[in-house]
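Protocol step 4 of 6: record predicted structures for both targets in the notebook before any analysis. Target 1:
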Amino acid sequence: MLPVELKMKPLLLPLLLVLAMNPIACSRSTADPVDAPSPDAATQPEGVEVLNDAGQAIAVFAGGCFWCTEAVFERVKGVESVVSGYAGGNDDDANYQLVSAGATDHAEVIQITYDPQAVTYGELLKVFFTVAHDPTQLNRQGPDTGRQYRSAVFYLNDAQKQATAAYIQQLQDAGTFAEPIVTTLEPLTKFHPAEQYHQDYVRLNPAQPYVVYNALPKVKKLEKQLPEYVETGIE
């Protein structure tokens, strides 16, 4: 039987040979520093911090493989937890086999709970757009292709939708990216937590080749490019 990490990514073994020869090509969002504007007041409209029953603020982002985005946001100050999962599909059921096959139109997402006194929704957007993934890649992220790997913000209310649109406009006005941003804004209708073996995957599997070539460079990029956003004391 194959190790679980090799069973989870189709065609992973041939891909690893390519990544070993050209690791930067696998994840364009980690190749070059991005001089992005800081979120302005338009990214913090009234009501943008949506609270759960425990009084924690919630954000849901899709930016390719959830192993990678989870690893980045677990290092961001003020983030209290990150859960990998699925959202945006046209089926009430979602699991890795269905989603990875593109059968339900769900995306791999992360649900972030955070302390808005320590980090704002706008600051999370900055991390998402400039470090956690490449928002100019359409229906793919690095080596992963398909709508399940699309760039999307799943907004919980109109204020989050407004804030995200405002920050995208900031990025476009600043000429941050050479190519157009293709991130979609989609209402969150339901969040499906992913299987337990996907949770904290990078932290638990730091030597796994996919992690080494795709996730860890993004964490390093966060540390180098946005050190003021990094929670200290986390290994």
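Target 2:
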Amino acid sequence: MNKKFHTNSASLGDRCNLDTAYLPSEVFSSFLFEPRELVPFESSWKSQKEKRNLLRANRSSAQSVWLLQHEPCYTLGRGSDKKYVLFDLETPPFPCYRIDRGGEVTHHLPGQLVVYLVLDLFRYQTDLHWYLRRIEEVIIDVLHQIGLTGYRIDGLTGIWVENFKIASIGVGCSGWITQHGFALNVNCDLFGFDEIVPCGLLGKKVGRLDYWIPDLTVEKIQPFVKRSLEKHFGFIWKDS
């Protein structure tokens, strides 16, 4: 199972089977935030709301992207069913938030790269199915570059490697401006997932990328994620 990680991976070239039909024909100015310290969930949620409101007030302003790691917490989507939470919500093992995204309960913690995107879908396609598939393409692209094969499962949102779910996706959208994004398990401790039914998927296993690449860290994979976002969303990074 173990593979050696090379930071100078070959370009995708003709070996890539990714769907390139959706690659953007334009570039878009976007702020990029990459905090080095762990970020409390409430802080990032507040920042997303602020940037979303600014973009709503001025549709020509820059979009915003965050690449970060969270302090341990749980989040539940706006319609999430409490039956997928296996602990007492009155006394959670970590802070727990019901938030304005789709999807069921998930877990954030150090060693997991979380990517939030406040984007104006009028610049791309006003189609949430298209947007979710584009995010999945970003993740599959990243995995391909580090020598892993990620794939979808029909009818489910997220990305799997060898029957382990390694990336969860949950987005919010209001007035075609997006919020939230995806989480990629890199070298995080997965014990906290035992307290929930992740994403409401009974019988599905959660994994992390260092199962296959033992020396992989968030810091090592973050540049690949950044480049894939640039490729699939046409970002030109703007000083924040």
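Step 5 preliminary note on target 2. Helices lie at 41-57, 128-145, 218-233. The CA atoms of residues 171 and 224 lie 21 Å apart.
Proceed to step 6 after PI sign-off.
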